[in-house]
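Quick one:
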Amino acid sequence: MALLSVDAARARMLAWALTLPAEAVTLADAAGRTLAEDIHAIRDQPPYHSSAMDGWAAAAADLPGRLNIVGESAAGSPFEAPLARGQAVRIFTGAAVPPGADTVVIQEVAKRDGEFVELPAAPRGEYVRPAGGDFRADARLLAKGMRLDAWRLSLAAAGGRGAPSVARRPRVSFLSTGEEIIDPGAEPGRYQIFDAATAALVALARQWGGEATRLRTVGDDLAATTQAVRAADCDVIVTVGGASVGDHDLVKPALAALGLELALEGVNVRPGRPTWFGRLADGRRVLGLPGNPASALVCAELFLRPLLLAMQGADPALPMIHAQAAAPFPANGPREHWMRARLTPGPGGAVLAEAFSDQDSSLVSVFAAADALVRRAPDAPALAAGELLEALPLARA
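Output:
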């Protein structure tokens, strides 16, 4: 297969993305989930005229004046009788404004005298929150495909929805391969390295809405790789390592026994050229990432993130921004290059992007210090400091 551009590779993966079923969850369990339906309000909010301040509810036509106090209205305990002319009700923030009242006078300017209160003039409607002032019944509050954060959960709750319908979380299993790979915390041999990619990939998949699990690392063993994938209960398998065409890169041959059908077998990208994607005979999708940590993490941002979002019905587009080059960028080679970079604020509200000098795909320390990826198109000319470029911000705590 010919190498595909990043955009073409992503489009081919998305064309093969699974559509996950919906499920109802409580609001307490809905944070980070993607809506599978529009959310409409079941009634007006607020459902009645309410007071914005502590004070006195009265008719503006009676002000200024000395009014007879006939009751009290508190949140949840309203004064429901209509007010006659010359009457006032003590009212508290959030309480229903009684019928016949159209104004709230704040308590700081009122003078109480036993069963009467003297109130100054006030315009009609002052400190009154009208019914439906936030939203009306049947208004669409949230759209299908939105991810529920704390603020959107608050809006759904205000609209009366207790169990929204959301997309099921995609189940993702990560399989790291290679004789040289050892789990962090284990005692390494002289020629072994710690698995620096998989823990990060699991964290990213969870951040993107997935239920992620890490399978036990397998060596360069055809049968063990086949068995590990066969036993994984998931929607998507992500293999880390074994993506190239060397004598010890056995993942694709191992998955041939499970009916692997390839959608793409390489991407014209740096880092991450060996990235591949396909599906097994049972319908599970497989994304093959390179073993170098930076390559794996860059390609996860470019391909796994959009794939998982699309499976949940969310917008898979990369959240690119424009930034100014903080320093000159050299001309690019024939592969699209996603450079680890740091973003800083510039003059006049501009965002400045500075690439790290060493872009070797094995360097974990560089990726840990980066907060963006700068996109350089194939054969892009050199950029001078101050010129515009495209950058993909990374979600850093």
